[in-house]
Amino acid sequence: MELLKSDFYYDLPEELIAQHPVEPRNASRMMCVDRRTGALSHQHFYNLCEHLKEGDLLVMNDSRVIPARLYGEKIENGTFIEFLLLEQKGDKLWEIICRPGKKAKVGTRFSFGGGRLIAEVKEVKDDGNRIVQFECDGNFFTALEDVGQMPLPPYITEKLEDKERYQTVYSKELGSAAAPTAGLHFTPEMLDELRSRGIKTAFVTLHVGLGTFRPVKEDNVLDHKMHSEHYYLPKDTADLINETKANGGRVIAVGTTTCRTLESVATFYKEIAEHEGYTDIFIYPSYEFKCIDGLITNFHLPESTLIMLVSAFMGYDNTMNAYKEAVKERYRFFSFGDCMCIL
Hints:
Layout: E1 29-33, E2 40-44, E3 57-61, E4 63-65, E5 69-74, E6 80-90, E7 93-99, E8 109-112, E9 117-124, E10 130-135, H1 140-147, E11 173-176, H2 188-196, E12 200-206, E13 229-233, H3 235-246, E14 251-254, H4 256-269, E15 275-279, E16 294-298, H5 305-314, H6 316-328, E17 339-342
Parallel strand pairs: 1-17, 3-12, 3-14, 4-11, 14-16
Antiparallel strand pairs: 1-2, 5-6, 5-8, 6-7, 7-10, 8-9, 9-10, 12-13, 13-15, 16-17
């Protein structure tokens, strides 16, 4: 089977890439798509309740973005360095990307925030990433909050005034290098309204890595190697999913990260139960979904693994038609953009 990257290309005018979030959060637009027929309608996110039924279950990713971008200097001579934290490997021990890389040899020490954080390079990996050991007074994450910047995607060029706008209102588990953006549209009041209507909510954790922005380089999609991300599906969420299914309700994933978590467990373990681990699942057309019945997701980059996942869920033709319509109707795209509700 051959699946071409170019099959997932669409033409996107640059001015449709959202540079800042809308206020309030749930004022974003929402394209509702019937995945069986491809029929679509134009709504707003605050209309979501009208598309869900009592007994449905929304599953969300409660991962919290860390302010993972650090600007500092080499202690030895004050030359500039930029770190991007990727994954925690131990106590104050992190895998990072840095630039300029040639300044970060093993044993080199760097200072951030006037010495609030100190880092020493312990290892240079084959892919150029570094393993660094941080030192600080007190809690590392408190220091990081003071010193770090939000690692906004490369297509967002405007400064974010409020760090919390790149967090979901229910985020709590620190560890992501990018936001699970489908959840950015929820407000606390809207979650309360959903629950009051008998629509249940549950949480998984998948720490989003920067691999989510890595372009597909191979022409044949099947040759692409997916990045790996850490996930946790708690027992209470697994129980709620199984109960919802047994009662005829729908399980709706909020975001591709939630979708990947649930489908990973269903695929690898043939059941929905408590599990923790790493997943590099790659979902593209021909994949048979084993858990989710609906998906809330933003509009994704052309030729990305995420638009391939959406195509697998609602059909290739329906997906490309919906994206063409979104461009025509001037929806806002990507992380701070509008969303789709696919049922």
